[in-house]
Specification:
eight-stranded mixed beta sheet; Bifunctional nuclease domain
């Protein structure tokens, strides 16, 4: 009788193990589908340049997709514009600027800016996140797009924009004739 109970216990353990493995596989596939959804919901962009909006007297950073069919203008401050320009150039400021210091701290801590994502546009205000990895763990840090882009320009990090934001604010090839920057 004891042998019979041990056999039943072994069957239950075996089925329990199979059940746990099934849950693990299902959760891993769910995680992968979430990662794929995230990839589909964002588009990589590049800094095309810094412009100046004469109407409202403010700088504009221009992000474009790789095919250069979409341009996303983001109005920024003068200091941030200058900092992005410095980050894109080979010039070094005589003393470290705030974004240089942030990049140095991130590197010193063994962290990496994985990417910058412009995640939302509400009431004509853009919102971004800086995704930083430390020891394999990724943290998403809320930031103004201008700050995130200035940091990305120093860290050689990719810039992404959620497609919902592009749908709201990007200028496409067909819009270029209608709008002037």
């Amino acid at each position: 009788m004891i042998f019979f109970l041990q056999g039943d216990i072994m069957k239950h353990k075996f089925f329990g193990l199979i059940f746990l493995l099934t849950l693990l596989v299902l959760s891993a596939s769910s995680f992968n589908s979430e990662a794929n959804k995230d990839k589909e919901a964002i588009q990589e962009m590049q800094i095309k340049g810094i412009g100046y909006d004469q109407r409202i007297q403010t700088p504009v950073v221009l992000l474009t997709d790789k095919e250069q069919t979409k341009v996303l203008p983001i109005w920024i401050g003068l200091c941030e514009a200058r900092s992005i320009e410095l980050g894109l150039s080979d010039k070094v400021a005589p003393r470290p600027l705030t974004y240089d210091m942030m990049a140095a701290i991130i590197r010193t801590l063994g962290a990496k800016v994985e990417r910058v994502v412009v995640v939302d546009l509400r009431d004509e205000v853009f919102y971004a996140q800086v995704e930083v990895s430390v020891d394999g763990k990724i943290s998403k840090i809320d930031a103004r797009p201008s700050d995130a882009i200035a940091l990305a320009s120093r860290m050689s990090s990719p810039i992404f924009v959620k497609k919902a934001v592009l749908e709201k604010a990007a200028i496409t090839d067909s819009d270029k004739e209608k709008k002037e920057l």
